[in-house]
Specification:
Helix content: 25-40%
Distance between the termini: 82 Å
Radius of gyration: 28 Å
CATH class: Alpha Beta
Shape: elongated
Strand order of the largest sheet: 3-2-1-5-6-7
CATH superfamily: minor pseudopilin epsh domain
Largest sheet: 6 strands, antiparallel
Number of strands: 10
Length: about 160
């Protein structure tokens, strides 16, 4: 009888203190992880900004290396094209995918300025032009109304 009584007293399980401790740990982990997941949209916007900036640089480098006018053409508020040969209808070749260099932005990311149909073109010296000739002032490409890429006249310097 004594042996049976001991086995009943040795039931395994969690104490209330252990359960509370685990709940507190889970709450701390959730509190630390929440800001990372809530800022996903700003991460996507910054990624699109960096991609667009590198694409503008690529268009400038393509113009210099091929000795032909190349540029960026805004197709719509959520897409653009890197083109070559001075014609916005001739997309450049994307060196990563070997397909047309037409880019569609992620949902929720739009090009606020300039309007669709606008372009910034570079000559064989890397000097930027718009549809009216050489840039008289900085060309601005603005994403979601908050993030801006600036292209400096004469030098074509691309910066945020």
């Amino acid at each position: 009888m004594l042996i049976q009584k001991k086995s009943i007293l040795n039931k395994s399980g969690f104490t209330l203190i252990e359960i509370i401790f685990v709940i507190i740990l889970l709450a701390i982990v959730a509190a630390l992880a929440y800001p990372r997941f809530s800022s996903v949209s700003s991460i996507r916007l910054n990624t699109a900004l960096d991609k667009l900036k590198s694409d503008v640089y690529y268009a400038q480098e393509l113009a210099v290396t091929t000795h032909a006018n190349c540029g960026i053409f805004i197709i719509s508020p959520n897409s653009y094209r890197i083109y070559k040969g001075g014609s916005t209808a001739t997309p450049a070749l994307d060196p990563a995918t070997f397909s047309d260099y037409d880019i569609t932005l992620d949902p929720g990311i739009t090009i606020a300025t300039p309007a669709a149909g606008a372009k910034v073109e570079f000559d064989n010296f890397g000097v930027p032009y718009d549809g009216n000739g050489a840039l008289a002032a900085e060309a601005l490409i603005i994403l979601n109304g908050t993030k801006t890429i600036r292209i400096t006249p004469q030098t074509g310097w691309v910066h945020l």
